[in-house]
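[step 3/7] inverse_fold.run input=structure_tokens len=150
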């Protein structure tokens, strides 16, 4: 992990090295990332996440090549960025934070269309990042529907 700084990011500062459920553990790093961003104006939060998404394409590609596996289970930067994006869209409460976490993990694990399509056909760093962004979009849609109903 420490052989190159990009590996540290790709592995979610080590959370991706968890022996059990590395994607779920890595997703938790999305919370502190969101807390860092939440003081910014909303437009800068989204711009920052777009930059972190682009950085993710690069670092996940780099780490995947080094490991010889494009979307290695220890690579969790995609979960980190996607989770922070979901959190931007919900009220700042524990219950909505838990709902955001659960809905993102649901879509990231279940991978309904178009997530499964991106996971299967888009490779490299873009593929690693894209399927999680699509899971985040679906989670946001579900959470927005829940907010409208409640």
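[step 3/7] decode complete -> sequence:
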């Amino acid at each position: 992990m420490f052989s190159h700084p990009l590996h540290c990011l790709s592995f979610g500062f080590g959370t991706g090295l968890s022996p059990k459920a590395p994607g779920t553990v890595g997703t938790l790093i999305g919370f502190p990332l969101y807390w860092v961003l939440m003081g910014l104006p909303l437009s800068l939060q989204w711009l920052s996440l777009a930059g972190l998404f682009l950085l993710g394409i690069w670092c996940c590609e780099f780490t995947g090549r080094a490991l010889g596996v494009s979307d290695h289970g220890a690579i969790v930067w995609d979960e980190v960025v996607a989770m922070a994006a979901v959190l931007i869209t919900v009220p700042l409460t524990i219950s909505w934070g838990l709902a955001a976490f659960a809905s993102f993990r649901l879509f990231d694990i279940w991978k309904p269309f178009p997530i499964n399509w991106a996971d299967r056909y888009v490779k490299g760093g873009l593929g690693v990042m894209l399927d999680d962004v699509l899971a985040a979009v679906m989670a946001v849609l579900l959470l927005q529907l829940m907010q409208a109903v409640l």
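[step 4/7] annotate
The two ends are 43 Å apart (CA to CA).
The first helix runs from residue 5 to 10.
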